[in-house]
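User: Fold this, then the next.

Assistant: Folding the first:
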Amino acid sequence: MAPPRKSAFPKELPEDFLLTDTEKKTWRLGRRIGQGGCGLIYLASQDLGRPVTEDTRFVIKVEYQQNGPLFSELKFYQRAAKAESVQRWRRSRGLDFLGVPAYWGSGLAVWKDLRYRFMVMERLGSDLQKVCDGNRGRLKKAAVLQLGQRLVDVLEYIHENEYVHADIKAANLMLGYNDREQVYLADYGLSYRYCPDGVHKEYKENPKKGHNGTIEYTSIDAHRGVAPSRRGDLQILGFCLLHWISGSLPWDSVLMHPTKVQEAKAKLMDNLPELVQQLSVSGASTDEVARFLLYIKTLDYQEKPDYKYLIELLGGVVSRRLDFSMPHGASGEASAIKAASRDKKAGGARGANRAQAVPPEGVHQGANRAQAVPPERVHQRANRAQAVPPERVHQRANRAQAVHPERVHQGANRAQAVPPEGVQQGAKPKQVPTQYLRGPPLARPQSPQREEGGVRRAWWSRSHPVYTCEDEEEEEDEGRPKPIAACYLRGPPVNPGGASKQRRSSRPPQPEAWRRPPPFYSEETESSRRLYEEDLYLLQRRSGEAQRPASTTVPWFVSVVVFFLLVAALGASRSPLRLL
């Protein structure tokens, strides 16, 4: 059977399935309690005689054998996280607790022709990310500094065992199952052996491997594609501490662009401690985190950090209990956000009922406000109404008269089509007055220098003939539709035929082309054509644009000049006619 994709979650194993690890210990599977990365997590027990109980101390993480994250995590636990080595480290450092999960075994299994890899670990509680989400993304400063000190101890242990974590974040910090005071650094799927056999990896940038890890907290070295190191682990921890105290990071708005996140982190490290101190919130300064990051900036890629000094920078050894309650000020922000969301949801209902919910005193206030208008404003309004120029009045009158009959009927039908609920009971719908009917739209002028007397064609000219003001009486007698005012008529297009501008400019002038009827008259009768030309000439004669035919008579001053030339010619000659 072909192996499944590496990124797919494995098919669930049945409950009470038995697994045998490499040390020949047998484990019984219980119900599935979660998933992480590409694996599933089950309850487990060494008691094979009965089903797994809910209070068991062990869990088993299962993935397909081809997956890489569990293999990397398994190698770390096998080399550096055995229970015996953790206990020896605690005794040598005088620590009561070290937040490294205990490793109990691993192995391979086959079910329905699918090969699985599993790992048995200590059972842990919920992660720290859920605590941060409940506190609006923030923690109390004292709790953050205590977490930082405990994580420095964990990092020192795994660094001494030639590994780095490379993915420190709240989602990978697990609280104890029975004791929430115990915080574990879990999920070593991205762990890296930086110093195999005591030889540190060299600094080498590889753009193809850039931006590895969680983009919010990953180190600047990881952005550049450099292999993880101890300096990178501590820098990631510093970014986490800054986020837990202030509730935000300067690059939160550009997380979709890894290069911009890298630039923002480099700017923060280049401007220490000022930019970090600017992120301080009320009652929680970031001075300790600024000093923490400032020390990390001085480290070389292969340099071993001073872990004791880092603990001192975070406030020294603190024996108080961890307090994960909501910090001061975060509750006010949370309540404000909840109130804003409630107002947003109820805004529609309030808006709909706002007109009905006006109290009686509000009505009286509105009436008093209307009566309290000063006299000078009343006179201004009256003068403004009287100050309409006469030409505006005539334009409105002409526009009301120029309404096409079909538009009038449409307006009447629209007025009668009012739904019954919109009309008061016992009242008939009123016809829309002519003054409120909209006339034809003003046509766009062909050029900015066109005079007002130019002829324009109405928007319905393609289906109805054009009429002028001169024939109003005759048309009324014949029962034709009402004529269209000249101000709404538009003349025929210049040079019809669609020729380009260059060709029109190169042709000789055609004085009679403007008298040619528009293309839509090509199918009309000869009588309609003559009527159009007569109407056009009458309108242009009224506006002074009509061209009169040239006169064939010789001007008088030409006759006078010819006469004097003849007289001069006769006087200069010897002909007897000069005596005349």
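Now the next one, as you asked:
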Amino acid sequence: MKRILAAVATATLALGGLVATATTAAAHTPNVDATCGALSINLTQYSDRGGNANTVKVVVDGETLLAESFGRSIERSFSLTKDEKHEWSVVVDAVDGSRYDAKKRGTIKPCVEGSTEQKVETAFYVYPKLDADKPAAWANSGYQTLIATRDGGEFWETLPENYPGDLFDVADLPADVCEGSWGVQQDVVGIHRGFDWADYQHITYPKGPYFEKLVRHRHSELADLLPECGEDAGEPVTLPAPSPVEVCDAENSVTLPETEDAAYTEEWNDERTQVTVTATPAEGVVLAPDTVTEWTFEFTGEICETEPVVVTPEAPQVTDLCGVENDGLVVPANTDEITYSSVDEGVLATAAEGATLGELPEGFTSVDASTALFAVDESAFTDEACGLIPGDIAAVCESDVPYLAYAVSLPEGVEVDGDSPLTVTFLNPDGENHVTTDLPLEGRLLWPGASATEPLQWPGWELVDGEYVETDGNFAWTRDGVQVLFEVNPDYSTVVEYPEATADCANPPSDVRLAAQETAVDATGDDVADADVAAQTAAELPRTGATVGIAAGVAALLVAAGVTLFLVRRRLAQR
């Protein structure tokens, strides 16, 4: 149909944890909203007995827009042309009886371009009637309380979903409410600037307050909407009470009644010596007058014997590793039977109330029947300094090239970040040191001043006009009893004697010197950079922070007095 622009539909089928075994008039809500340019339906709280057995049919201008089965609920929206009048009807066939069927029809007027139609909302109030024998009416209404509001001008045919709301207590309803002592007022109100429902939470006849624009209103009997007053309402019931259970060899508990009339919940205090049980009536259940729905039980424990429980404390763990920061004391975790606390003298173990300490583990001293002290003082820690552990450290020659081969390890209880934490420093007694960083704990390091590529070079020698000559430069100071420092962080150290040198790398062979006179290479620029190779390992070469000048020549690598090496270890976090 050309006058119907579009139909947008969203079906919402109710699923979840509550299944109604009996359905009342209050459980069917056929909401229809017809406004300029749109028609929407929202059918909720229908019976889903037999699956999708309810049906709904929507007709606009003689054309059927929807004919569909549904379960507990369905929601649909239809867009209509705004410049034409539309005749509509909605027919609902409920599976649980014709009294729940619904038939609604109406006319949607064309929208007036530029019109400022006032927004309306509908309010739902309940009140005690001034005279229970007379019909519900404004002049027969007592103190009215607002239950719910919603957009549009459609009256509720069942109780609002949020009944009784935040302002009304159903406990205020009398036992004879089903006999017609209470009424309902519904007001369709024009909403204007500054309007607030908070100003109309309660209304009293004849004082008001009154609405500025009351479009229409309707009074009805509250009993016609209450489930407990419907035809399907059962006889009033009295809920059975729960029973407390207190025994010495088990946790306090309550036995809840087995009934379909109510759901019972328990709320215990932290000590589990008091419990409050609350019964919530099932949907449709009507309680008899003065029915108890809440019970509180106290558990005194008087029936239980008072013999204390014997418990044994756990000894703290003392960790004494090298260095002060690697020492530690691990206090056992608290249990239901024993708590542990650190005191100046050590660790105090305290038995819980009603318990006593039995045989104490070694290290504990009894304070009283429920308290023992595990003494811990400074004598428990040796405070031995941490140091790197030296392995094989030696000067080696490969193809006439001198290297420092080394291996060091960390002491127990310490860790480092990364695989290359080591710094090796050749200590210059008269000038700037030669430092190589980011080295592994085991590897091989090219001796300062040496070159593994042509032209070969040695510390203390230079290549001048094609001939190797001795010099005071090119790390000649490493030849005379040089100290080598192995460092992870300068907090702890150990000293080892470097092995005495051999003659293999002491000087360049005579044939090398003669050959060099014929094949001299200018060792500058990139050649010098290539000569500064720091350490060779299976993984990668470390960075070298050497202070090498132009290195060339031959060198006697080690003197007969040997080379002194320092190994230094940093303070590290306890494992």
